[in-house]
Amino acid sequence: MRFTPFLAAALALGLTAVAPVGAMAQQMALGGLKADPKAPVQVTSDKLAVDQQSGHAVFSGNVVVIQGGMRLKAAEVTVDYDPADRTRITTMHATGGVTMVSPDEAAEGRDAVYDVATGQVVMTGDVLLTQGQSVMSGQKLTVDLRSGT
Questions:
Q1: DSSP 3-state of 9
Q2: Are the C-beta atoms of residues 59 and 89 closer than 8 Å to each other?
């Protein structure tokens, strides 16, 4: 990751930059938040409710989702399965104190939607991204797990 001297100083002082609505999105390397979207997904929780008819499952209570080196924790995760193949997960919607961690980085937010096919995770609501000593905050974070950006 490359920071300008001003941004590095602002981060070191714990300042948060506020961008106006409609500001251009910034793309940065997130090497640690990189995962293989084709790797198996393991989900554990206190409770599980499955609707075979609709192809939805709701995991609740201490939910942990693991895929490769990525780990996601939340209060509740709704999983949608592929209608043509009920063994394949298409999307996951996590709510309630969502934390996504890897060995080098961590992101927190209120909600996260993971599109397994594209490898895209969109976190929203008081998002906090930590990379080593650097911390950034905002209302939305989009992570491409394939490229790590």
A1: helix
A2: no
